[in-house]
């Protein structure tokens, strides 16, 4: 029978400590990334706000998905990350633009001087979240119940 070599106990313990540390570091990094919120480097800017449309994207304050930030996509770029109960406002040039959660899913025309409101809701669908356009009165209610992202 071949002789079996055993690892010294001290080496086994140090490898175990290293492995536990790496797992803890990975989990911590994942939590920090999923909790990141605010505007990204792709946040839209316009030269003249009077020549643009103002857009509000509001995230509902439901408990579903409460612990994670959702990515707001505009024309194939992630422009912001919203926590539950936050909203972001920005200006876009007139024309058709696509909005969505993580990726654009809704395309709408935006007119110069117009104001547009969209709500991200937690839904029990295969995607988990849905974006929909709001009327002015509904938007005012939601804006009063949420806070702007910085």
Q: Indicate the overall shape.
A: elongated
Q: What is the helix content?
A: 10-25%
Overall mean pLDDT stands at 80
Largest sheet: 5 strands, antiparallel
Query: What is the level 1 CATH name of the largest domain?
Result: Mainly Beta
* Overall number of structural domains: 2
Radius of gyration: 22 Å
Tell me the strand percentage band.
35-45%
Do you know the CATH architecture of the largest domain?
Sandwich
N-to-C CA distance: 69 Å
How many DSSP helices? 2
In the CATH hierarchy, the third-tier topology of the largest domain is known as Immunoglobulin-like
Q: For this entry, what is the oligomeric state of its chains?
A: single chain
Would you write up a description of this structure?
The chain has about 150 residues and is of the alpha+beta class. The chain has two domains: about 5-35; about 40-150, Immunoglobulin-like (Sandwich), CATH 2.60.40. It is about 25% helix and about 35% strand. The protein contains two helices and ten strands. The protein has helices at about 10-35, 135-145, and strands at about 40, 55-60, 70-75, 75-80, 85-90, 95-100, 105-110, 115-120, 130-135, 145-150. Strands 1-4-3-6-7 form a five-stranded antiparallel β-sheet, with no helix packed on it. The radius of gyration is 22 Å and the shape is elongated.
